[in-house]
Write a structure and sequence with these properties.
It contains 1 helix and 20 strands. With about 270 residues, the protein is mainly beta.
């Protein structure tokens, strides 16, 4: 009899808990924002392959998406650095960049003289390319550094001759009409699957011989690849222009419980 009483009490408790949970789930929070439907993007067949909305700057076949590239050559499906830096014919503001690069093997030189190059966002802001595998140099000049501003959070280099991958997420700076800075540039970067820059705020451009500074420029600019006189190879370069999510506040946030709408005070 006692056991039956215990089971009865337990059943009542479960029923009450279930009822409370159901009441909680019956109440829904709605933020009142009408969102634009996100664009459909078909991913690439692999993580390194370009998705359907990417601008492919180099697919191993030709240099038609690059200016000043006469002295850079194609070797197999690789773009080999030559005399003079090159810039893309396409220009970008906020964007996602994928680029693969390989240092010379056997290694040549040391410090900053070892497979030195750079990926320039908007052809102004440098993410360093350098053979930093067992090669000491100043920290804010090694592979994955924003040149002369910050080292990467980790040295994720593969050995010379192996391919490195940069996946870059770029927020372009904004300027006021009078030329003053409205908002700085930000960069997140992943090197060989390792996060090396996490929404880093750039202090300005990335020169060798003076402090960084911002100067007003166009909202979009090309991707630049640096010639530093060192052997470096590139392949599989593509860029996705990025647009912010769009939505409008159609009404104030509220709670819905069945057919009843409950305004959220102060919202």
């Amino acid at each position: 009899m006692k056991r039956l009483k215990h089971w009865t009490l337990f059943s009542v408790a479960v029923a009450l808990a279930s009822s409370a949970t159901s009441a909680s789930w019956a109440q829904e929070y709605l933020n009142g924002i009408e969102w634009k439907e996100p664009a459909i993007v078909t991913p690439g067949a692999t993580n390194s392959a370009p998705p359907s909305d990417a601008v492919v700057l180099f697919d191993g076949k030709d240099k038609s998406h690059w200016k000043n590239a006469d002295n850079w050559k194609i070797d197999g499906d690789h773009l080999v650095a030559g005399r003079g830096s090159i810039v893309s014919t396409d220009e970008f503001g906020d964007c996602q960049v994928h680029i693969e690069w390989s240092a010379a093997t056997p290694p040549k030189g040391s410090g900053q003289g070892r497979s030195n190059s750079g990926v320039f966002l908007m052809n102004i802001y440098e993410l360093q390319v350098l053979d930093s595998y067992d090669n000491k140099t100043y920290s804010d000049g090694q592979a994955g550094a924003i040149y002369k501003q910050t080292p990467p959070m980790a040295n994720a280099m593969r050995k010379p001759g192996d391919w490195n991958t940069y996946d870059i997420f770029w927020t372009a700076p904004r300027f006021n009409e009078d030329g003053s800075l409205k908002s700085p540039a930000y960069i997140t970067a992943v090197h060989n699957g390792v996060l090396i820059l996490n929404h880093f705020e750039l202090k300005g451009d990335t020169p060798f011989n003076r402090p960084p500074e911002y100067k007003k420029h166009a909202a979009k600019g090309p991707i630049g690849l640096q010639d530093h006189g060192d052997p470096v190879r590139f392949r599989n370069i593509w860029v996705r222009p990025l647009s912010p999510v769009e939505g409008k506040q159609a009404r104030k946030p509220f709670l819905r419980n069945g057919d009843k709408e409950i305004p959220i005070e102060g919202k």
